[in-house]
Amino acid sequence: MGGFIQKVLMSRTYFLTLLLVMIIIIMSILSPYFLTVQNLLEITQFGAVIALLAIGQSLVIASGNGGIDLSVGSMVSLSGVLMGLAFNAGISIWIASIIAILVGVLLGAFNGFATSVIGLPPFIATLGTMYMYGSLALVLTKGTPISGFPESFGFLGQGTILGIPTQVLLIVIPVFLIISFIVYRTVFGRQIYLVGTNDTAAKFANIKVKRTRFLLFTLSGLLSGIGSVIMSSWLMTARADVGSGLELQAITIAVLGGMHIFGGKGQLGGVMLAVLVVTMLSPGLQIANINAIWQLAILGIILIGAVALNQYSSNRLSLKAIK
Amino acid sequence: MFKSYIPRPGRREYLTIILLVLQVIFFSFFADNFLSADNLKGIMQNSAELAIVSIGMTMVIILGGIDLSVGAVLGIVAIVVGNLIQSGVNPLLVTIIAVAIGMSLGLINGLIIGVMKIPPIIATLATMNIGRAVVFGMLGGHWLAGLPPVFTPIMTNKIFGIPIVFFIVLLIYTLFYYIFTYRPFGRHLYAIGTNPEAANLVGINSVKVKILSYAISGGIVGIAGIMYVARMGSVEVSIGLELPLQAIAAVIIGGTAITGGRGSLVGTLAGVLFITVMKNGIVIFGVPSLWEKAIIGLLILISVTIDIVINKQITRKRATGTPLGAEELELEIQRGD
Question: What is the pLDDT of residue B335?
Fold first, then answer.
């Protein structure tokens, strides 16, 4: 039994799969309507935006040097608000969506510039931009939501294809596949992990360390921009506070998925499992009538537990290596 | 052990003080009522909590850490204080309880960071969200309003025309300035912040210092909680939401290095006044207060950038004469820790 527990704790895939099964069992007991294919597929729509943010966050964390992006939620808010303003100015909603994505890229690139080029520690730079972007979103809308998007725009966030939510089938899965291909099958992808493990060694291997980290922050912005489009389509409004709290979710999922907080370790597959775990958890908490603010508290507890777990397993690994 | 190193304020702090003076001159020139006694009194009263909380923030940032949970801790303490004074508990006892609660919450942060070795930004991001939920749960959707004015005299009563709270803040600052500069504990903070490995090698128990620092920081927030109740006479669910941002900004503007090991309370006090005067100026000029967070966020980025650029130049100066590769390596090492 002790060996089994240790094996589960050491393998993130086993651990998360077991956690997922446990959550599904508990949910099925709480609600008889939970365990249907239809419902399970529908629930995935709640995870679409945070899946994108968590992928970006994971790669920023994997690139090391204290890499973290606290501004993802604010980037979603600001991109969405600018999209709404562009639409209000008479621009077609689809072009406005492209504007939102470009804004995300710009905001992410600014983070990348501040951290990688100027050399600010990521946590303080993105804490600063988190407040800046979020506050700008509020200033631009004066706090009032923008709505009145055309019906057809809702297709992205509310429609389904073969019972699968559109945003999952057409955006999240392709994005995950493309980024996984880049990370695991291209030279650039492998460089991310080397940069995260040992940036001095990476430099001597002629890897452009700063450029790598800059690109990952920009990617995080790009994914936040895409996330803001999905979010706007899903809610059919652009609100300045829509992204608040998303940074905690993204970081928690990345770490729960096995991303080691000091960089260089962790796999995107684990992160996707963690997205499922957290996504399955929130409707359950709603069924149990637990307020959204407590869900953030629970995420906080999971976050600390997950970092501790990652450190436990990497300590065990290095002990094994010494033996 | 560290006799030769006394971390006195230096040029970086003078820069903040000069900026503060320029800011005051600017606002008094463009806004007639800025230098009025009422406005200055208001600045003192409104900056008291931020000033107190920033002491603890300075401590943990010198250590190379950060604390995002201060606002949530302030909220929890203020709610307890509010409930206690409503049921007529002795003010002295309330003060002790407030500090004790603050310290215990800070201790939790300290244990997570010191013992579990979880990076401070992650640990306090988590405890901040847990704390905010606790604040929400304790208030249960209501305001805590109409509190008896037990602590209000520290805001309203005056000595030589200056609110009592000013002297309390000054006293606490003097005490901690002494600890930071002349006590072993203070030196240990700087040593750990500058080079954790070296600090361990000379026999400093960095885990103990970290736990203690976060606990003390929490205790100080407890005092700030009392000041909040004294000033506002009520507690609402959004209490302290902006506090972490403002305290971090004040400390960094005051010249404490975000990478740890450098900084002083003189600078922090100047930073606190800089932030408060700026907020005051924003109101006087009629700029929508929604801009406040954006401006403070930008100020953080600018201050940290200035520090990083100055640091690079110092390193470059030291490295003149050494081969290019070595210079770059030194830069890397500096940034690495």
Answer: 45
Contact state of B125 with A127 under an 8 Å Cβ cutoff: no
Which residues span the domain enclosing A185? Answer: 45-285+292-310
Query: Do the Cβ atoms of B277 and B23 come closer than 8 Å?
Result: yes
DSSP B235: B
**Which domains are seen in chain B, by residue range?**
11-336 (1.10.3470)
Contact B76, B127 (CB under 8 A): no
To the nearest whole Å, the CA of A140 is away from the closest chain B CA by: 10
B2 pLDDT above the threshold of 80? no
CB-nearest to B133 from A142, A262, A293 is: A293
Q: 3-state SS of chain A: helix, strand, coil percent to 5?
A: 80, 0, 20
How many Cβ pairs within 8 Å bridge chains A and B? Answer: 135
- A170-219 pLDDT, tens digit per residue, is 889 999 999 999 999 999 988 999 988 888 888 888 889 999 999 999 99
Asked whether the beta carbons of residue B301 and residue A129 sit closer than 8 angstroms, the reply is yes
Domain membership of residue A111 (yes or no) is yes
Residue at A23 is within a domain: no
Closest residue on chain B to A309 (Cα): B116
Structural domain total, chain A: 1
CA pair distance B11, A161, nearest whole angstrom: 64
- Tally of CB atoms within 10 A around A161: 11
Instruction: Identify the CATH number of the domain in which residue A140 sits.
Output: 1.10.3470
* pTM, rounded to two decimals: 0.88
Q: Can you tell me the ipTM of this complex?
A: 0.85
> CA-CA distance, B333 to B337, in Å (whole number)?
7
